[in-house]
């Protein structure tokens, strides 16, 4: 089947007409610049790419940032304190990019994959309130984060400990009354 007539896996909103090599050559021969906005340039025999190509410079920057964050966090996950190396460490934005966080070193820490997925795009207040154990480890291992983020972790851990203390007192009172 010719590539020009094939529909791809993209949703209907994102589908764009495919410009064949011949059409692109004709436009170039007439002196027109081939349009990059309206069409996908297809190569014969090439499958559509699922991912945009990542430049080597960007990958090198990510690796360098991961190494620096690993060094700053003591080569441990800042949420569960499990040991990490460069292969299983993931970069985590404490204040998520989806919620207005920035991509600067004061907001980036290393975490293991399960903890990074557990946190998702939760704000630090929400995450540490749900998982106070993660806040305790965060206070200990996240050395290069902004002090406001550490303050949030301390507050969430202390509130969680106070709630546990109240719950423990209530249970002991109920046992004594029974």
Describe the structure in brief.
With 178 residues, the protein is mainly alpha-helical.
Task: Give the C-alpha Rg.
Answer: 25 Å
Contiguous uncertain segments of 5+ residues: 5-10
Mean pLDDT: 77
The percent range for strand residues is: 5-15%
Counted by DSSP, the helix tally is 6
Strand order of the main beta sheet, please? Answer: 1-2
Q: Helical amount among residues, as a percent range?
A: 40-55%
Number of strands: 4
What is the fold-level CATH name, i.e. the topology of the largest domain?
DNA Binding (I), subunit A
Structural class: mainly alpha
Q: Give the CATH level 1 class of the largest domain.
A: Mainly Alpha
Descriptive notes:
With 178 residues, this protein is mainly α. The protein folds into two domains: 3-41, no CATH class; 56-176, Orthogonal Bundle (DNA Binding (I), subunit A). Helix content is 46%, strand content 8%. It has helices spanning 21-29, 56-72, 113-119, 124-130, 132-141, 147-177; strands at 18-19, 40-41, 89-93, 108-112. It has a two-stranded parallel ribbon. Strand 1 (18-19), helix 1 and strand 2 (40-41) form a beta-alpha-beta unit. Helix 5 packs antiparallel against helix 6. It starts with 17 loop residues before the first strand and ends with a helix. Mean pLDDT is 77; it is low at 5-10.
Blueprint of the fold:
Blueprint: E1 18-19, H1 21-29, E2 40-41, H2 56-72, E3 89-93, E4 108-112, H3 113-119, H4 124-130, H5 132-141, H6 147-177
Parallel strand pairs: 1-2
Antiparallel strand pairs: 3-4
Helix pairs in contact: 4-5, 4-6, 5-6
């Amino acid at each position: 089947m010719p590539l020009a007539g094939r529909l791809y896996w993209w949703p209907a909103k994102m589908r764009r007409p495919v410009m064949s090599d011949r059409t692109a050559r004709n436009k170039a021969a007439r002196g027109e610049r081939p349009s990059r906005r309206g069409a996908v340039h297809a190569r014969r025999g090439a499958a559509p790419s699922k991912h945009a190509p990542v430049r080597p410079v960007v990958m090198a920057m990510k690796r360098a940032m991961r190494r620096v964050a690993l060094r700053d966090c003591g080569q441990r996950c800042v949420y569960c304190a499990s040991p990490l190396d460069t292969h299983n460490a993931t970069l985590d934005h404490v204040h998520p990019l989806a919620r207005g966080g920035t991509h600067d070193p004061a907001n980036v820490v290393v975490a293991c994959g399960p903890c990074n997925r557990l946190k998702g795009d939760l704000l630090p207040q929400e995450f540490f309130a749900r998982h106070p154990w993660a806040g305790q480890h965060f206070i200990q291992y996240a050395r290069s984060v902004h002090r406001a983020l550490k303050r949030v972790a301390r507050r969430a851990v202390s509130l969680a400990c106070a709630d546990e203390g109240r719950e423990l007192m209530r249970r002991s009172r109920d046992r004594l009354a029974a």
